[in-house]
Amino acid sequence: MTDTAAVLKDVFGFDGFRPGQGEIVEAVTAGENVLAIMPTGGGKSLCFQLPALLREGVTVVISPLIALMRDQVRALQEAGVAAGALTSGNTSEETDAVFEALSAGRLKLLYMAPERLAAGSGFLRRVGVAMIAVDEAHCVSQWGHDFRPDYLRIGALRRDLRVPLAAFTATADAETRAEIVEKLFNGEVPRTFLRGFDRPNIHLAFAAKDGPRRQILEFAAARKGQSGIVYCGTRSKTEGLAAALREAGHAALHYHGGMEAEDRRIAETRFQREDGLIVVATVAFGMGVDKPDIRWVAHADLPKSIEAYYQEIGRAGRDGAPAETLTLFGPDDIRLRRAQIDEGLAPPERRAADHARLNALLGLAEALECRRKTLLAYFDESEVGCGNCDLCDRPAEVFDGTTAVRKALSAILRTEEWFGAGHLIDILLGHETDKVRQRGHDQLPTFAVGKEYDRRAWQAIFRQMMGHDLVRPDPERHGALRLTDAALPILRGEAEIALRRDTIRAAAASRRPAVKAMVSEEDAPLLSALKAKRRAFAEAAKVPAYVIFNDRTLIEMAQDRPQTLDDMARISGVGAKKLERYGAAFLEVVVGEAQQMHPSRRKLAGRSAGSVYDRLLAVQADLARGTDGVDKPLSCSASQLAKVAQMREADATALQRLLGDRRAERFGPAFLDVLREAG
Ligand code: ADP
Ligand code: ZN
Asked: Which domain of life does the protein's organism represent (predicted)?
């Protein structure tokens, strides 16, 4: 395996494998037939690119999207790998160069669009193909959304060339898997790897709608300059929200299926290439997106199912660096999604399954504990850690909602399931509206029995009742709420139900979110300088920024501050070729930046507190992730450090007052040591 490790470091610049990659690389390199199911961002490409370099001959890679193929080839060439592509987008010079490299036996990876297989692949028999790798292998499934008829030719190609085949996909359901085995492997079950669905770097959060446009604008404002996607339920909303974002000073585009194909392509390319662009889109946006550094995904409307949710948020953070998501939902979303299922043309059993998939998502939206555990439980994964969702950040406040729900259910039954939440709430609150009086609903026993909550609270209770599928809007009764069987045990007093209180209150309180930075305040200026350098290279080479270095690599540079080219080589993502090409330029940025001090530090220049400050900073860097290096990153602001550096009477209590509990606990003792040595 030493060979493998050397190539991994040298070409890709990685110190180790991501979970699951090692075994797959080993099996593929050994020439086994392999089917690997990995979540998006799991690092599938490496699992065929690395074996391709370790094996004799050329590896043929079949991939469905031409633009992405071209980017992958560019990225490989940047890393010094002989790679080429044969697609309809090629210039004739490009095609000539590929054939020349092929016949000289130089090419290691040949990317091919599936259509190319129809045009004939006889030449492959003569050029020493080592193996076939199939990306997005689920495209072979006739029942899937991404079916590509030309994928059906791959099985024959494999038999023709008599080489091993490795298939990769993020779609794991059993039917699709069986179809892949049948169509690509002729029914012979390959060595199969199924990697868990967890994406630990993606922060999960839901919020009840409360001025959704404002909520999205605030979420984006806290992440200014980072690439993100906002998913909307309707085409017109994408345009309005994109305009609002632009007005707020963001670079934002809209995207939906009703746009001309050419305009859609332009939007996709801009998003792929530009740094920090926001795309406001319907779900039509996604298949053509392969950007590893999408830093956030927000849903302005509830997605249609738990699978759709997982897939859409999964587009964030494929590079493994922290990414954030926010999904908004409200009673109207639930009504709309239910109606879409009920009014669809699917047969009844399919509709029932769709309701169940929506219920799973609503259960996640109304979850009382950890989102990740709830989400992964749906995919039958139980051993999951988290600490990276809104409910782990701040546990939900729960109250016994049994009585409230029973009152609401009885109001629905007494009015014979003919009314929506608004009127029902009027009854519960004892409001004598015209409608209430005309129908004689002020005479009901449930009239005015719900005065302990206000309208807002009742709205949240009704929303949660819909979320728990106790009641469903009936499209044939203009959305009137009707009980489901799930409500009966509660009504009969055989079951209790816990509801969230904070979604009721948080809606009203709505605090402005803090600006989310990817690095500490100290390192932020250096990170922007590194990004600017990257942008310059990317623009000159006309490639997406991540082809030069991905975010994670720049973050590591900003934090570790390599001082020599040797240091630089140790940064993850800096392989030999990239070191040679870009190392010096980025090193210059790091070293140059060191001379540009933070204003708080500059004020101390020439004084002894200045060198104390530098030592505090070094100590802080060592402890940024705690003594064992596994805790959440934490740092003090520059002005806090400056104050510590100038403290006269330093002790634990004074530090605690200045830094707060968490920082004092992490850094206090070490800071005191520094001050004692200096004093
Ligand atoms: P996907 O599984 O979605 O196709 P990719 O192959 O595009 O994922 O990889 C996603 C990102 O992860 C890329 O930016 C890649 O450089 C990075 N990556 C892959 N393997 C590793 C590794 N072992 N160490 C660090 N980064 C990695
Ligand atoms: Zn959690």
From this structure: Bacteria
> What CA–CA distance (Å, rounded) separates 670 from 636?
13
Q: How far is the CA of 105 from the centre of ligand 1 (A)?
A: 28
- From the CA of 374, the nearest ligand is 2
By C-alpha distance, which of 673, 674, 672 is closest to 658?
672
pLDDT at 289: 76
The label of the residue with tokens 């000159």 reads 540
CA of 51 to the centre of ligand 1 (A): 15
DSSP 8-class letter at 513: P
| Cβ atoms within 10 Å, residue 627 | 10
pLDDT tens for residues 491-511? Answer: 999 999 999 886 555 444 444
* Full DSSP string of 360-429: HHHHHHT-SS-HHHHHHHHTT--------BHHHHSPPPEEE-HHHHHHHHHHHHHTTT---HHHHHHHHH
Residue 99: per-residue pLDDT: 93
What is the sign, positive or negative, of the torsion defined by CA atoms of 108, 113, 114, 116?
negative
CA distance 2 to 24: 16
Q: Residues 208-224: pLDDT tens digits?
A: 998 999 999 999 999 99
Name the phi and psi angles at 358, rounded to 5. Answer: -70, -40
**Tokens read off for 530:** 């590194």
Q: Are 312 and 297 in contact (CB under 8 A)?
A: yes
Ligand 1 atom nearest to 39, measured from its CA = 2
Q: Is ligand 1 within 6 A of the CB of residue 40?
A: yes
Q: Is the CB of 42 under 6 A from ligand 1?
A: yes
* 18 close to ligand 1 (CB < 6 Angstrom): yes
* 13 ligand 1 Cβ < 6 A: no
